[in-house]
Specification:
It is built from 15 helices and no strands. With 341 residues, the protein is an all-alpha fold. The chain folds into 3 domains: 147 residues, Serine Threonine Protein Phosphatase 5, Tetratricopeptide repeat, CATH 1.25.40; 81 residues, Alpha Horseshoe (Serine Threonine Protein Phosphatase 5, Tetratricopeptide repeat), CATH 1.25.40.10; 80 residues, Serine Threonine Protein Phosphatase 5, Tetratricopeptide repeat (Alpha Horseshoe). The radius of gyration is 24 Å and the shape is elongated.
């Protein structure tokens, strides 16, 4: 009806809505086709705000299929239109609203929100492609547009940490924790999993900084407590339970590192043993390799050289079977060194 009536903006909204339904159903290729139609109709309407929204939706659809380079190009096109200032697209992912070319506070806020979101999505594409410097630049532009969300602070922290900027990373992560603590609970509020993740990021970065190991340990312990409570309250499928075990295995591994840094070797041994058990149960080869290497180092520090040798040799055998070479390379060097000694 909208096509026969010549309502181009109505057609844009219709294609956007249909694309949103496909996105919800996980049919990303179908959604992409809808958004292509949305883009063509938006161009016909002469509304640059709707055109920008269409590019953003195309980018999101491509992100969901792992096509990050192509998605990034769509977000760049969206940003070019938004920066011209000829319209402030609306709506969220998979939705479209009419643009507003009139100047004013409402339009300015809308434009800023859309710019921030587009920069954050572009950063996510760069990050997925391993370009952390470009990702950080995009995230910083999103921050400059006024966004200070949990997702953006997490992204800023992780990109900074990947670049070795640990002090900056810690600042972002601690700010994220404060933001989540101040957020309302319950429906529409913050999930415990978000807080658990944020606390874990703080603890991990503190340890990487080589200081405040006791504070890092408290972060890991609270993160694990929140994760367990979320799992208990949510029930969950076997897939979720397996994911929970994987997360717990990683938490115990980091807790073991914190205890080791504090000289609490028996506690470190207990955490790494639990990490190994959980990683083995959920079939996490990298987790098994890390826990095994950590157990070897801890036994060595305790003077249990024979047991240290058993674990480190086992680690080397496991490491050769997994393709996660990047994740275990530093531990592998340490293991060879320890065996040599």
């Amino acid at each position: 009806m909208q096509e026969s009536g010549g309502d181009s903006k109505g057609e844009v909204r219709a294609h956007a809505a249909l694309g949103g339904v496909h996105m919800t159903l996980g049919k990303y290729s179908s959604a992409f086709k809808c958004y292509e139609e949305m883009l063509e109709r938006a161009k016909d309407s002469g509304d640059s705000g709707l055109e920008a929204q269409a590019y953003g939706n195309l980018g999101i659809a491509r992100m969901n299929t792992g096509s990050y380079e192509e998605a990034g190009q769509f977000f760049q096109a969206q940003l070019s239109l938004l920066q011209i200032g000829s319209g402030g697209g609306g709506g969220g992912e998979g939705r479209a609203t009419t643009g507003n070319s009139k100047k004013g506070s409402s339009s300015s806020v809308s434009s800023s929100v859309e710019l921030s979101r587009a920069y954050r999505h572009l950063g996510e594409c760069h990050s997925a492609l391993g370009d952390h410097q470009a990702a950080l630049g995009a995230y910083e532009k999103a921050l400059a547009e006024g966004e200070e969300s949990s997702a953006l602070l997490k992204a800023l922290g992780r990109s900074s940490r990947a670049l070795g900027m640990l002090t900056s990373a810690l600042t972002y992560f601690e700010k994220r924790v404060r933001l989540l603590e101040e957020a309302p609970q319950g429906q529409g509020g913050v999930e415990q999993g978000s807080k658990a993740e944020a606390l874990h990021d703080v603890g991990e970065t503190l340890l990487l900084c080589g200081r405040r190991s006791d504070e890092a340990l408290r972060c890991f312990e609270e993160s694990l407590r929140l994760s367990r409570r979320e799992q208990q309250e949510g029930g969950g499928t076997s897939k979720n339970n397996n994911s929970s075990k994987n997360g717990e295995a990683e938490s115990h591994w980091w807790m073991g590192k914190a205890h080791f840094a504090l000289g609490e070797l028996d506690a470190a041994l207990g955490d790494h043993t639990e990490s190994l058990r959980l990683a083995t149960e959920c079939g996490d080869k990298l987790g098994v390799a890390r826990a095994t290497a950590a157990l070897g180092k801890t036994h060595e520090a305790l003077g249990n050289l024979e047991q240290a040798l058993v674990f480190l040799e086992r680690f080397l055998g496991d490491a050769q079977k997994t393709r996660e070479e990047e994740g275990v390379s530093l531990e592998k060097v340490s293991a060879y060194s320890a065996i040599g000694e």
